[in-house]
Amino acid sequence: MALNPKNKGLEMKKILLVLSLLLPISMFAADKTNLTVKGSDTMVILAQRWAEIYMTARPDVTVSVTGGGSGVGIAALQNGTTDIANSSRPMKSSEREKLKQRYNSLGVEVKVAKDGLSVYLNDANPVQELSLDQLKGIYTGMITNWKALGGKDEKIIVYGRENSSGTYVYFKDNVLGGEDFAPLVQTLPGTAAVVNAVTKDVNGIGYGGAAYAKGIKYCLVKKDAKSTAYEPTEANVKSGDYPISRYLYMYLRARPTGELQKYVDWILSPEGQAVVAKVGYFPVR
């Protein structure tokens, strides 16, 4: 049955009203910029804080942050599912080559913070300091009792990270000299899990980012038996006295433009670097 002219005109007015209400919403959604960040668990707290502050100042931008490990973030960068890969270790040449094959770019590296890779001990553990050789002995299974290190006659319970972690790779390369971790090392999914385990285990030892050491103590670390042991403070990391300090990185597929460039520039600005210090890492500038 055909509509009479009056009803037809009324229906058209309703349609136009609905469209006028929806149009501003659709325009706003189209103008919304979405940035994705994925990777290092060491950097998750820092990356989330950056994102929160930036989105407060820029409500037209959404920054989504997830962890999973440095290797996971780099793989996501390679397959195009993230804009930024956070990594607590430098990208390998083989990883850069994969980027080049797909995007004709070796990627762009941005140093965004410094970290004293920390060794965690339970507060009740009488041991205060260890050398790099002693740490290597613990994590390769050559030293298994705290008594050999000046502690109690108790078995050392060793905690570490999964092999997708940049912290795992850094520790293996720079503390173990490339040797494999002993089978006795209990691998945990994230630095927070390592800290939690050592907090509950008087004979535990773990490693991870400086910003995570809550409820436990830092083990002072020295280069060798004759050297002075240092805590991973900003001064000791910047001077190079703390022997296992490192940069924290953001990787991009190519030189950033548009909103991505603005976000990276803000992270490197005094405001962005102030967040680094508040979280517990150390500014790069």
Q: H/E element string? A: HEHEHEHEEEHEHEHEEEHEHH
**How many domain units?**
2
The average pLDDT score comes to: 90
Largest sheet geometry: 5 strands, mixed
How many distinct beta strands?
12
**Which structural class fits the helix and strand makeup?**
alpha/beta
Unreliable segments of 5+ consecutive residues: 18-29
Looking at this structure, what is the CATH superfamily of the largest domain? Periplasmic binding protein-like II
Question: What overall form do the CA principal axes indicate?
Answer: elongated
Give the strand line-up of the largest sheet. 2-1-3-12-4
- From the coordinates shown, what is the CATH architecture of the largest domain? 3-Layer(aba) Sandwich
Task: Give the amount of beta strand, in percent.
Answer: 15-25%
Top CATH class of the largest domain: Alpha Beta
Tell me the number of helical segments per DSSP (H or I, 4 or more residues long).
Answer: 10
Radius of gyration: 25 Å
What is the first-to-last residue Cα distance?
Answer: 75 Å
Q: Helicity range of the residues? A: 40-55%
- CATH topology value of the largest domain: D-Maltodextrin-Binding Protein, domain 2
